[in-house]
Structure formats: C-alpha cells, structure tokens
Input
Amino acid sequence: MTRISRRKFSVLAGSLAGGILVSGVPLALARAPSFQEGKKLGVALVGLGSYSTYQLAPALQKTKYCHLAGIVTGTPAKADKWMRQYGITQDHVYNYENFDQIASDDAIDIVYVVLPNSMHAEFSIRAARAGKHVICEKPMALNVAECDAIIEACKSAGVRLGMGYRLQSEPYTREVKRLVREKTFGEVRFVSAAAAYISRGNPNQWRLNKALSGGGALMNMGVYSIQSCIYGCGKNPVSVSAQEFSTRPAYFKQTDETITAQFTFPGGTVGQMMTSHNASANRLYASCDRGWFELKPANNYGPLSGRSSEGPIAFPHDSQQKLQMDDFARHILEGAPNRAPGEMGRRDMVIVEAIYRSIREGGRSIPVELSVGYGFGG
Ligand code: NAD
Output
C-alpha cells in the first residue's frame, strides 16, 4: 500500500467524517495546514501554455483565497522561467512523469489541469488520487465516459471538482442567470448563442489534431455556445439537431470547422447555437414573454457588455479567472456553492456527443438524456 500523505489523510478523514464541523469548519479543512494558518489555498497549474501563462498565473497574483504554489511542466526551460518570475521553489515543480509525488506536497491544495483536452482525464484522475482538489479546463474530457471516470475518482478520493468555466463566476453571466431565475421578462421563449473565432495559425497545433482535441470548434468555443443557451433559458435541452459546414477542408483536415445546432427545451422554449473556427461571433440573445436581453460580447475575457428591453446592463470589470478560482477556493474553504461542478462539465459533454451524433445521422433530432436541473451548479 502506498504511503498516505498528511494532506491526503486529512482529505480522506474529512470525507469519511461525512461533514463533521469543527467551529463551523468542515473537519477536513480544519486539519488542512493552509486553512489553520489562515493562508490561501495553494494552486498548482498543470501545463504552462498560453492560458496558464497569460490568464491564470496573472489572475493568481490577484486572488484572495488561493495563490500560485506549484507548476507541472514537461519543459525544464519553462520551469526555470516560472520559478524566477513567481518565486516558486524547486520542491513545488513537477513534470508529467513525477507528477504523482505531488501527493506529499502540503503546499498544494488544488491542481488545475490546463492541458490539451485528451490529457484532462488522466491528470484530473491522477490529481484526485494524490488527494488534491481538482479544477479541470473545458471541455472536461474527450467523452462522457471519461467525465464519469473523473467524477468517480474525485468522489472516492473525497476531493472537490470544479470546471474552468470562468463565465459562471462573471457578473454579466450571473445577471443573465438572475433575470432567467426571477423571470424578470417572463418565460424565455427563444435563446440564441454564438461563440467562434477564425483559426489561421499553425496547421499542426493540437486543436486541429483530433486525437489531442477530440474535435474542432465544438470542443473549443462550442462549449460556450452550449452553456449560453442553457443559462440563457435556465433549462437543459431535451433534444438537439445539428449540421456541420466545411469550407476549408485542407486546413481543417481532422476537426470540425463550423457547427450549428437547434435545441428544444422543456416548456416549449427553443434555441439555436453556432460555433466555428472560421468565423468570429460572440453573443447571447434571449427573447422572453415581456422583453429580451442580450450579452455582446458574451464569452471573451471581458469586459462583457449587455442590454435588455429595459436598458443597459453594466457591471465593473474584474478578472474572470480571479473570480472563478476564488469562488472554487471559497467552495473548499467555506462550503460556498460550487459554481461549475464536474456534473456541469459532464452535462455539456452529453450535449456535445448528441450534436456529433445528430451530424453523423444527417441532422436527425437526438434526445438529450439528462435529468431536470442536472449540472446547474451554484
Ligand atoms: P496551449 O497549446 O497554449 O498549451 C498547452 C500546454 O500543454 C503547453 O504548455 C504544452 O507544452 C502542454 N502539452 C503537454 N503535452 C502536450 C501535447 N501532447 N501536445 C501539445 N501540448 C502539450 O493551450 P491552451 O490554450 O493553454 O489550452 C489548454 C487547455 O485550456 C485546453 O483544454 C483549452 O480548452 C483550455 N482553455 C480554456 C480557456 C478558458 O477560457 N477557460 C481558454 C484557453 C484555453
């Protein structure tokens, strides 16, 4: 049997204790060194590509409840640069081979998986088995079976699982959720979402390689379109029909270029989405019984912008990644809602699979098998 680290033991003890509280604090957390000492939770970023470099690491310099405590990279030169830039010492630097040793690193509470999509399941599962809470980037994995394996690994290790869905913590998106929940404009009858950008870069990049990405636009910006349609009406779809368009097959050899899809939702709401690697689009629009609302842009790093039939929607801008990681840390520390749980990532993958199936079957309507309210998060 492998040695159980102090940190791992505290997590397992907490899960076995089934929610026992010490002075209002979950037992696992009361024992966790970071919490006892009033320190921020330590985050290790796995994969130091563009999202980690230009968004997550800078955001972790501004977070209140967590901080950058470690890195996992296959490139020693990157490790040296990050250690200098962020004051990380060698004992919190890992590569993909020795990653499992992170289990005995008490400075790391959360592992954030920021790798190509095909590596999300492996590293999320290894992180959970090391006793670390997990944030997994979108899309959660290559398919629903992998999502199930991640969720199961986190459950059995007694660790929390969150998706890298930054918009779930972002104020314009939260305002849309409020308008829908409180029926400010009555019932949403029609929702439309588009999330797309033009890809012209390196034809050998992993996003164009099906084995590494699992798919094209749909497995990238498509996830935002799906999410927008769902929070734009507050329901999970019951069926979807989809179409694929290809105009640059020499560049998009293995992966989808443009996809459109139409949803039906319970209660007669209908929706449509578009995603593409060959067009620019960034919008959410909903038409309701007594008005409408729109976010445009709806899914970039911000500032977003919004309006409704009653006037502008406006919030001060803040780093979405900062808000997202602090929300997840507060979920761990204080039991705050998990805004983007693993079940939400899995739900979106059920829909992705239904969309690809509809395309394979000539645009036929495919039922989306989800229970009501499944995967909505906090
Ligand atoms: P990237 O290509 O810039 O970085 C990928 C990293 O993975 C690099 O450090 C690379 O060295 C490493 N890697 C390890 N094995 C690799 C392999 N076999 N092939 C290629 N790279 C390998 O990608 P990125 O834009 O940082 O995206 C990483 C993940 O983050 C993806 O899942 C993506 O969908 C997600 N992402 C999310 C957002 C968001 O807004 N939530 C934004 C960008 C990216």
Observations:
- Residues 167-367 form a domain with the Dihydrodipicolinate Reductase; domain 2 fold (CATH 3.30.360.10).
